[in-house]
Amino acid sequence: MSQAELTQTESDALKGVVAELSAEKLYDKCIELANNLWWTWQPDVFNLFRDLDPIRWRQLDHNPIALLKEFTPERLELRAAEMVLYSRINHAYRRLKEYLSTKDTWSATHAGVLGSRPVAYFSAEFGIHESLPIYSGGLGVLSGDHVKSASGLGVPLVAIGLFYDQGYFKQHLDVDGYQHEEYMDTKVENLPMKPAISPDGTPITISIDTRSGTLKAKLWKMNVGRVKLFLLDCDVDGNKPEDRELTSRLYGGDERTRIRQELVLGVGGMRALKALGITPGVYHLNEGHSAFASLEGMRERIQEDGLPYEDAMRDVARQTIFTTHTPVPAGHDRFDAGLIEEHLGPLRDAMGISHDQLMGLGRVEPQNENETFCMTVVGLKLSRRANAVSQLHGHVSRRMWAHLWPWRVEEEIPIGHITNGVHVPSWVAWQMLQLYDRHFPSGWYSRMGEADFWQNIHSVDPGELWETHATLKNLLLQFVRRRVSRQCRRRGESDEAVERARTLLDPNILTIGFARRFATYKRADLLLDDPDRLDEIVNSTTRPVQFIFSGKAHPKDEPGKAKIREIFNLRNDERFRHRIVFVEDYDINVGRHLIQGVDVWLNNPRRPLEASGTSGQKVVLNGGLNCSILDGWWAEAHDGNNGFAIGNGRTHSSVERQDERDGEQLYRVLENEVVPLFYDRDVDGLPREWIKRMMNSIGTLAWRFSAHRMVMDYTRLAYVPAAGGLSCDMSQF
């Protein structure tokens, strides 16, 4: 071989090595992006993963790790070259690095005291994204949004939850509309989590002694932007077979399963933090599921610091924030004395207290031996700051728990409220985000909890806003047709039924969405009380209306399942077949499409049983209007010009009479307000007054009900005071 040929060979080999290194580096950047859930609220990164393989992206539930496993570095590089993705990948990677390294955050100015002693945020579920199925509904999505906004604001916070390897169930309806539940095994290797490591470099496993044996759990770590999310998992060697399954399913099993899950979450979560070397300055217990954490905190103070029981109680309560989420009695977990002694007996021994003292912490009347142990009661007793999740829910909660403070009048019961909000970047459609970017001042994205920025919506051309909404509505209808036709085929229905599903719904017709958990108090069937009147509304020759329903009922909730069947089977009625549709398997993905594309979001719970509700807040961001009972967040949000109210906020002593009255008011508001306003068009075909109401909705509500505002409220009014970071507080004097 000549020297020239040798040189050329070496040159080709060098190019091959460089290309291989380049491919590996590109692949590694994509993997790093996929392993931080920051991408879930970055539309450009989401679109980047989708463009690698749109079909598989959809089939894999938008899971980038599972998608990347189907690529070699070389194939990824070829696809990147084909789709011109190099600069997009590098830009996304650089943005992630900048996001994680920046110190100039809202929290750095307003919550410095938390820097060395962060907030520990406990929740039984976290709804971050559909590819991570460790949530069931509103509570989990609220927790996920809380964590995301804490990341965006730079609030030092670590989150503690449970890893459910079968998650919540997949919903399938049979031909008769009966709900069937299917549980899927989640592949850990396809999730962005790694074993949590202690400061000495070993994987963390925690143990909890009970009267019936020792429970063990390993710890996983996920990155949600700047926030670390730690998940406890009982599928470990050393546990009994039934205990290895303990954290398999969310909200599954009997009371014994529930108390053991909550023992792992609360006590196990506290021990996990200790094993991680994290000393929180604040403990935020999101709902009663994690209330055992306070008992473990007291044990630590008693055993390790030598504090007397009463001092340990005061010390823990001073640092604890407790959030209650439900005014429905069934939503508050209660356990009998036998279950408490079996699971908390060793902890009680370590604290040096009697069984009666322990039971008293969870009772409204400590000496009442017939009263069970309530997780909400212990959460309220062992916290100095407690809150409901809307103003109305605050009133309801103070009345509900007034017996805990019999010496106080109801107005002085120490339960405040911080109204829930939603994480704007997670729920605003990319098309709406583009519109906001064009018309809002630079920097609005990092200050979305401030009112002034959102007033720029009034400078947007009405036609542009309407066209953007029309685009989103078309995308929603395409999604619904795909899902429903696929569901028809799975059930073995006729080709005619499948084809009919592919042409469902009309983009020119007023489209109303209703999607949530099918609990009976949410009254999904309120519209169905007068089928003839409903027929006149949906099949009007000049102003028709169409409805999209979705939602799951708890596996043990037969009345909720019956409501699903009733709505689903409207497809067998020729009057409603083309106007009312039910979409199976409600999850974050289905919810995202619905809240981004509907004209109106319908919410008609039995007041005052909706603590807050957040789905309607997501609709606001995308130009949809709310039509709701004056309950939860809507009771403090509606001003007469930013949506529609059902009724006047009054309740009847008779549930039957209340339902009858609310049903009549719902029909009236649809017939007399919603439908006429939507179809009142000018010469350009624009519903000017409707668009004005859309702008009023965005301008008055988007900032108030954002998770950024919510987390700022928690930080200023709860976290900083609990951590001892106030420079002045004269409110007690």
Provide key terms for this protein.
20 strands; 3 domains; disordered N terminus; Rossmann fold; six-stranded parallel β-sheet; 733 residues; ten-stranded mixed β-sheet; 29 helices; 13% strand; globular
Describe the structure.
The protein has 733 residues and is an alpha/beta fold. The chain folds into 3 domains: 7-101, no CATH class; 117-165 and 209-417, 3-Layer(aba) Sandwich (Rossmann fold); 424-705, Rossmann fold, CATH 3.40.50. The chain has 29 helices and 20 strands. Mean pLDDT is 94; it is low at 1-6 and 9-20.
> Structural class from helices and strands?
alpha/beta
Give the low-pLDDT segments.
1-6, 9-20
Topology-level CATH name of the largest domain: Rossmann fold
Largest sheet: 10 strands, mixed
Instruction: Please provide the count of β strands.
Output: 20
CATH top-level class of the largest domain: Alpha Beta
3D shape: globular
By CATH, the architecture of the largest domain is named: 3-Layer(aba) Sandwich
Number of domains: 3
Pfam families: DUF3417, Phosphorylase
GO molecular function: glycogen phosphorylase activity; pyridoxal phosphate binding
Organism: Blastopirellula marina DSM 3645
Keywords: Allosteric enzyme, Pyridoxal phosphate
Annotate the secondary structure layout.
Elements (H helix, E strand, L loop, with lengths): L2 H32 L8 H10 L1 H6 L4 H5 L4 H11 L2 H16 L4 H5 L8 E4 L15 H16 L3 E6 L7 E4 L5 E4 L10 E3 L9 E6 L2 E12 L2 E7 L7 H4 L10 H22 L5 E5 L5 H14 L3 H10 L1 E4 L10 E2 L1 H15 L3 H7 L11 E2 H7 L3 E4 L2 H10 L15 E2 L6 H4 L2 H10 L11 H4 L7 H29 L4 H7 L8 E6 L15 H8 L6 E6 L7 H11 L11 E4 L4 H10 L2 E4 L11 H7 L3 E5 L4 H4 L6 E3 L8 H25 L8 H14 L5 H16 L11
Parallel strand pairs: 1-2, 1-9, 2-8, 9-10, 10-13, 13-14, 15-16, 15-18, 16-17, 18-19, 19-20
Antiparallel strand pairs: 3-4, 5-7, 6-7, 7-8, 11-12
